[in-house]
Amino acid sequence: MNDIVIYAKHYCPYCARAKSLLRNKGVEFKEIEVAFAPDLQAENIARSGRRTVPQIFIDGRHIGGYDDLAALNRSGQLDLILSGRSEAAFAA
User: b/e map of 73-84 (b: 16 or more CB within 10 Å)?
Assistant: First the structure.
């Protein structure tokens, strides 16, 4: 089972797309709402180095935003990561 964390804002369409993609994959994730929480937004920036949302982490690895997640999905690498074969996916 993967530990998936998404820093998001409730009104963000890219956040909604990322969550939908992961739900369609049948995986659970923890959503951290940062819209009204400056401390959590600061945590997001510290972890990801980015100010935008969503920022997605799988098993502690920074995946990136929705575009990065979608690209991994299109290439088939996301399935490798979610199946526990993440080293093979990240090496590709």
Answer: beeebbebbbee
Q: Report which secondary-structure segment, H or E, holds 70.
A: helix 66-75
Please state, in angstroms and rounded to a whole number, the distance separating the CA atoms of residues 8 and 52: 9
Q: Distance (Å, rounded) from C-alpha 78 to C-alpha 18?
A: 12
Query: CA 20 to CA 50: how far, in whole Å?
Result: 22
Cα(54)–Cα(3) distance, integer angstroms: 16
pTM over 0.70, yes/no: yes
Secondary structure E strands in the chain: 4-8, 30-33, 55-58, 61-64
Q: Which two tokens stand for residue 50?
A: 């980015």
Give tens-digit pLDDT for 41-50.
999 999 999 9
